[in-house]
Inverse folding.
């Protein structure tokens, strides 16, 4: 499951209607002793204990404010949020992701967070949550991508473990050498995932998914095509399970069951991998160097404040706190996510000392922001449909991506 690519339902027209409702916020006075209750919308039960610690720390500093966590499973989160926002009853503070951010910001649903110091966070993240020159999201956490590998399968095939500085050629040679050396195993699982797979290799090849101004698709660019072909070739060579096999069994489960030797996974996966039956036989390495770079896509969640909150000043204050140093330290100790606040990530790296989690951190400085636009969900739908055709071989890579570029450009023209 791609943790970061949660999409809004019916985003185009439904959320556009949100902006027509106007702002009804009745901001509480700063420094007031008025008793205030805020709601905080989140979607990850695994993070709820850490979020409760953060809430308790905030309430201790602000005894007149109570914060109630509203947990909604991620499968329902965006549908519920869309309905609440349309009715003007969105949580006072809630989690936001990149694909949905511009849609909510452009329709007046989010309050600018002028109380957030952008230098406290990786630039790529503050850029992701900036709209028309204003910061609307306080970065909460982030994720990059690394290559997990099964040492037992590498040893059986006589292949050296991956290490910093390896290249696409090294990677593809390893995938070939590892396939079938242990009966029934593959060198790599190569599903059509954006953030974890082809978005990264597109960047490494020097291509792009969407232009910096958000107006043009990059899918018909030769370098982008090269980045996608990297993965399709692995499936064609039978060095990866087929799309059908990776649909029948989640690709991460194929890795943790010892069926594949390598797997590109986000930094949200280590906790689960540490609990798997092969935990003692696996580790993670940096991404391989492509024709241009070994860049990883970086994405992360942000805490945002509803522009319609009846206690807007307090909501903005909590949004900033929930992404600040105290909160970051609590998140790091939980090991669930990499906190976005600069200087707080070492604790996360140490949370699972048996793994080389530093590999994820080494990619931050050169990481590429997750590709988004005002209505990411629209072209994501086309992207998924076309990639399915490409991965199953019903259309060749170049033809499929040129068709996707045309559809995506039409989507972008409607924003």
């Amino acid at each position: 499951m791609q943790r970061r690519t949660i999409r809004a339902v019916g985003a185009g027209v439904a959320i556009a209607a949100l902006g027509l409702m106007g702002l009804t916020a009745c901001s509480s006075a700063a420094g007031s002793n008025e008793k205030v209750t805020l709601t905080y919308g989140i979607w990850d039960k695994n993070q709820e204990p850490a979020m409760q610690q953060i809430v308790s720390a905030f309430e201790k500093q602000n005894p007149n404010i109570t914060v109630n966590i509203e947990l909604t499973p991620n499968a329902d989160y965006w549908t519920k949020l869309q309905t609440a926002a349309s009715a003007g009853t969105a949580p006072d503070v809630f989690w936001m992701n990149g694909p949905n951010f511009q849609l909510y910001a452009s329709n007046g649903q989010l309050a600018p967070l002028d109380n957030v110091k952008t230098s406290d966070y990786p630039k790529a993240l503050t850029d992701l949550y900036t709209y028309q020159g204003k910061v609307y999201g306080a970065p909460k956490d982030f994720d990059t991508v690394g290559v997990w590998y099964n040492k037992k399968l590498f040893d059986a095939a006589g292949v050296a473990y991956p290490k910093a500085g390896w290249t696409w050629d090294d990677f593809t040679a390893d995938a070939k050498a590892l396939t079938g050396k242990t009966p029934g195993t593959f060198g790599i699982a190569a599903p059509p995932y954006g953030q974890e797979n082809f978005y990264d290799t597109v960047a490494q090849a020097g291509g792009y998914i969407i232009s910096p101004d958000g107006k043009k698709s990059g899918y018909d660019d030769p370098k982008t095509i090269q980045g996608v072909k990297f993965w399709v070739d692995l499936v064609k060579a039978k060095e990866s399970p087929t799309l059908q096999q990776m649909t029948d069994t989640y690709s991460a489960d194929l890795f943790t069951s010892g069926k594949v030797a390598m797997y590109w996974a986000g930094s949200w996966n280590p906790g689960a991998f540490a609990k798997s039956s092969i935990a003692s036989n696996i580790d993670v390495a940096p991404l391989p160097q492509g024709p241009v770079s070994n860049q990883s896509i970086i994405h992360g969640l942000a805490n945002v404040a509803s522009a319609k909150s009846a206690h807007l000043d307090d909501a903005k204050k909590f949004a900033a706190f929930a992404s600040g140093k105290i909160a970051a330290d609590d998140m790091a100790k939980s090991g669930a996510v990499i906190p976005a606040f600069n200087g707080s990530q070492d604790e996360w790296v140490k949370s699972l000392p048996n793994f080389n989690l530093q590999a994820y951190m080494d990619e931050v400085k050169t990481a590429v922001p997750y590709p988004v636009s005002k209505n990411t969900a629209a072209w994501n739908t086309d992207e998924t449909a076309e990639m399915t055709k490409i991965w199953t071989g019903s259309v060749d890579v170049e033809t499929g991506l040129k068709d996707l570029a045309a559809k995506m450009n039409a989507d972008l023209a409607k924003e």
About this structure: The CA atoms of residues 54 and 326 lie 8 Å apart. The radius of gyration is 22 Å.
